[in-house]
């Protein structure tokens, strides 16, 4: 038997060190060729490290959260034959460390089903109860959590049929339909006294997100501008296009229309499609519109990039947004797909709230935030009518963007969305 040493690989682009984010194996595990051993985090993306050999793990070269130099020993595997271990390569064994894993959530750019119009008066246990611990947080997407809230259902009582026990919309409906005779146990559990605590190590993607958010708020002079938009007409257009072409071309969400509105508005406001190098004191305005779409993934917020949005149709943009969201959600987005944006679009979908203050995605100078659509009575030509209204909550770098220009830019987007034919008039 011999020992095969795997060193931290050179991932490219001049990176000298990476952060060890998560181990997928422990000492004593048997591994096979191409099995993922660990995740490492670069400045821009999570990278899988696969095994090049079959064998048994005998030593780990680091712990999650540790920053490791390229070329340092990552893991040692016992293999048949001589292996590749040199005397100078022998590592000091490091015990694997258990790290808490955050509950998974879905990317919020997916389309959300309609929720019930009215909430039950009280949360009544109606389906078969699941025996979860009091502090156990069930896996579910933000849309499912809101659906459960609207239905008055405690998610921890619902049996999930999705991957890893994830609670789906269908599980909520099944829970309501099946009924449950004994509601006293969950009610008692809901009011049980709790004294538990949980410590979560800030490593990997969460650490990168924290660093980038802190850096953005410290370096840029943020200011936000909020405007409400009547999206009744564009929602009618979207419904019409989905009815006519949805089966053959795919369903459209509002996001491709927003991307199109950005592209058209930026023709008159090129200063928004820019990057600011504050160290060199240089603003670079770009002709290409590479739209970052802020997406919630299992490991945190990621911003995959729809490249050359100016050259894409509605359905092309929709397909690319969906592809990138799935790649980010599954941890498969490449570094190129997560870098190079010139302006960012962020949306919380059904959880969008009324107003938000998005943080800039440096070195960009503008980010457009989308809030939820609500029906409200509005006065139109002297008549009170029900319209679908949505706020845009957008932030800008005041070092580069003047307040008047930011307001005019958002007003241009408003005009395009309220008169959707203008999105396609050249």
TrEMBL record:
InterPro entries found in the cross-reference section: 2-oxoacid_DH_actylTfrase, 2-oxoacid_DH_E2_comp, Biotin_lipoyl, CAT-like_dom_sf, E3-bd_dom_sf, PSBD, Single_hybrid_motif
Keyword Cell membrane: no
GO CC terms in record: cytoplasm
UniProt xrefs under Gene3D superfamilies: 2.40.50.100, Chloramphenicol acetyltransferase-like domain, E3-binding domain
EC number: 2.3.1.-
Family listed: Belongs to the 2-oxoacid dehydrogenase family.
Name of the protein in its database record: Dihydrolipoamide acetyltransferase component of pyruvate dehydrogenase complex
Organism: Pseudomonas moraviensis
């Amino acid at each position: 038997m011999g020992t095969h040493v795997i060193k931290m690989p050179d991932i490219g682009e001049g990176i000298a060190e990476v952060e060890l984010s998560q181990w997928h194996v422990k000492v004593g595990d048997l591994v096979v060729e191409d099995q993922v051993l660990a995740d490492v985090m670069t400045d821009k993306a999570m990278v899988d490290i696969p095994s090049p050999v079959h064998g048994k793990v005998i030593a780990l070269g680091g712990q999650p959260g540790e920053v490791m130099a390229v070329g340092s020993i990552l893991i040692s595997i016992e293999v048949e034959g001589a292996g590749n271990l040199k005397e100078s390569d022998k590592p000091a064994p490091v015990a694997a460390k258990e790290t808490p894993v955050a509950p998974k959530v879905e990317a919020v750019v997916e389309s959300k089903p309609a929720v019930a119009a009215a909430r039950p008066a009280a949360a009544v246990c109606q389906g078969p109860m699941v025996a979860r611990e009091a502090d156990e947080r069930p896996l579910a997407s933000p849309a499912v959590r809101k659906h459960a809230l609207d239905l008055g259902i405690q998610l921890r009582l619902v049996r999930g049929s999705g991957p890893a026990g994830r609670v789906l919309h269908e599980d909520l409906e099944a829970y309501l339909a099946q009924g449950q005779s004994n509601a006293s146990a969950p009610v008692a559990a809901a009011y049980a006294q709790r004294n538990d605590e949980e410590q979560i190590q800030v490593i990997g993607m969460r650490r990168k997100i924290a660093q980038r958010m802190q850096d953005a708020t410290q370096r840029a002079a943020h200011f936000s501008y909020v405007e409400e938009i009547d999206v009744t007409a564009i929602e009618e257009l979207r419904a019409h296009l989905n009815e006519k072409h949805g089966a053959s071309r795919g369903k459209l969400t509002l996001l491709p229309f927003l991307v199109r509105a950005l592209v058209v508005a930026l023709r008159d406001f090129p200063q928004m499609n820019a990057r600011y190098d504050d160290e060199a004191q240089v603003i670079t305005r770009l002709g290409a519109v590479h739209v970052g779409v802020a997406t919630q993934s299992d490991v945190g917020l990621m911003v995959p990039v729809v490249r050359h949005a100016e050259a894409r149709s509605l359905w092309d943009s929709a397909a690319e947004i969906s592809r990138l969201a799935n790649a980010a959600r599954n941890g498969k987005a490449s570094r190129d797909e997560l870098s190079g944006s010139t302006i960012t679009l962020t949306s919380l979908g059904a959880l969008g709230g009324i107003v938000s203050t998005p943080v800039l995605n440096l070195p960009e100078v503008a980010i457009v935030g989308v809030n939820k659509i609500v029906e409200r009575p509005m006065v139109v030509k002297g008549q009170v009518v029900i319209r679908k209204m949505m706020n845009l909550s957008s932030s800008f770098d005041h070092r580069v963007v003047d307040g008047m220009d930011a307001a005019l830019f958002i007003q241009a987007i408003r005009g395009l969305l309220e008169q959707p034919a203008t999105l396609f008039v050249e």
